[in-house]
Amino acid sequence: MEFLLYIAAFIAAVAFVILVIYVVVALKATRQTLSDVSETLQGLEKQMQGVTTETTQLLHKTNKLADDMDQKTTKLDSLFEGAKGIGDSLKDFNQSLKNISNSIQTASKVDQEKAAQAVKWGAAVVDFINTRKNAKNK
To answer: Where are the transmembrane segments (predicted)?
Structure first.
């Protein structure tokens, strides 16, 4: 019976050795996996630094473009204000021309009536002179 006890102890020792060997193999595989993960994370960190640098440069360029757009918009605002001033001046000029045209029309109507009166008076004078000449000639 004691012999069975030694065999059981031997089997337990062999099983323990096998278990330790499997644990060591598993730990080595885990260490290799962790090493690969570490390398991957380092590569990812480098890529993130590159992306961060490019993003910062892009942000600076975007800010410059925004400032440039603001300056150009300000210049365009003054240009549009100038164009509005020209439009207002043209509107005032057209109104002045309309007023002058109305004044000329009014004055021409008055002058037309005076001219008609002058023609009537001229015709009356010519008729009077012709009547006098005809009366003398007879």
So the answer is: 6-27
For range 40-47, the mean pLDDT? 93
| Side-chain-facing half-sphere of 71: CA atoms under 13 Å | 6
- Which CA distances in Å does 2 have to 9, 98, 99, 113, 133? 11, 135, 138, 157, 185
What whole-number distance in Å separates Cα of residue 33 and Cα of residue 22? 16
* Domain parsing of the chain, residue ranges: 1-110
Tokens of 41: 């994370």
Could you give the angle at the alpha carbon of 90 between the alpha carbons of 86 and 96, nearest 5°? 145
Collapsed DSSP state (helix, strand, coil) of residue 138: coil
- Write out pLDDT tens, residues 56-109: 999 999 999 999 998 888 888 887 887 888 888 888 888 888 888 888 788 777
In eight-state DSSP terms, residue 1 is -
Which amino acid belongs to residue 107?
A
